[in-house]
Amino acid sequence: MSRSVIIFGKNSFLARGAIDAFQDCKLILLEHREIEDIGFCESNSVVINFTCHPALENRPLKNQELTEFELVNIIRKTNFHVVQLSTRRVYGKFNCPVTEESELDPQSIGGYNKLKSEKLLQANIPPDRLTILRLGNIFGLENDIHRRTFFARALTSLAFDGRINLDIDPRSEKDFLPLHFFARAVDDIARIRPSGTFNLGAGFSTSVGDICSWLINGFGRGKLNISQGVLTDSFWLDCSKIDKHITAKIRRPELQSSVREIGRSLVYEKS
């Protein structure tokens, strides 16, 4: 039986970067406004939820406002498997490495809302048909000036101002995973359909200062402007649980080359 994969939220940055990774399947691309079309898809489909509410980061949302509330009302009538994209921000103040068993105590509104979405799905979808992926910092060539991620801000300031403005200590360490590695991992998950909750990141930390240096090196010019020196929110995810199910596992040299390549690509985007 051929597999069918539904990309729900096709215009999101992560979805656009992941689409090309899916092979040997029937790929269905839907926007949020096309949510009703999910109910007409093949019964063995996998739905990957890339959507989020526009106010996700701005205020606590009621259950009825969550995209997942609408999704549940359709999915519960089917045998679909759901892959929910969540975030490492559902965890509290943590010691590293962060495992799936770490305390759930979101420190941000976005993390609070994502945890609420997780719980809504867990209460309404059988556990053997639900995969939750708690993502680290997934990055790519983020050239949308409206995106507020670290990478989007860094690339915008590097391209237009010739510098990266950093408001945290460059020694702060994060778990960074290139978009193309994320895409291959999600394709594996959609193929295998493991149930449960999984961290998905590089599985190791990298300093923000190193990331900035690699970007500038790839771009060929620029400087790092540090406005504050506060060590903040350092983390890395223990990904040993998901590593049993995916083939794409990144190492530090591959991370470095991916970051430099984005810097080089920025030259062509600007020209």
Describe this structure in words.
With 271 residues, this protein is an alpha/beta fold. Helices cover 34% and strands 18% of the residues. It contains eight helices and twelve strands. The chain has helices at 13-18, 67-75, 109-124, 150-161, 179-192, 208-219, 240-243, 252-270; strands at 4-8, 26-30, 46-49, 81-87, 130-135, 137-139, 163-166, 173-174, 176-178, 196-200, 206-207, 223-226. The strands form four sheets. It has a six-stranded parallel beta sheet with strand order 2-1-3-4-5-10, sandwiched between helices. It has a two-stranded parallel ribbon with strand order 6-9. The longest helix is centred in the last third of the chain and has 19 residues, at 252-270. The N and C termini lie far apart (46 Å).
Topology as H/E string?
Answer: EHEEHEHEEHEEEHEEHEHH
Q: CA-to-CA gap between the ends?
A: 46 Å
The largest beta-sheet arranges its strands as 2-1-3-4-5-10
Question: What would CATH call the architecture of the largest domain?
Answer: 3-Layer(aba) Sandwich
Helix content class? 25-40%
Number of discrete domains: 2
* CATH top-level class of the largest domain: Alpha Beta
Discrete helix count: 8
DSSP strand (E) fraction? 15-25%
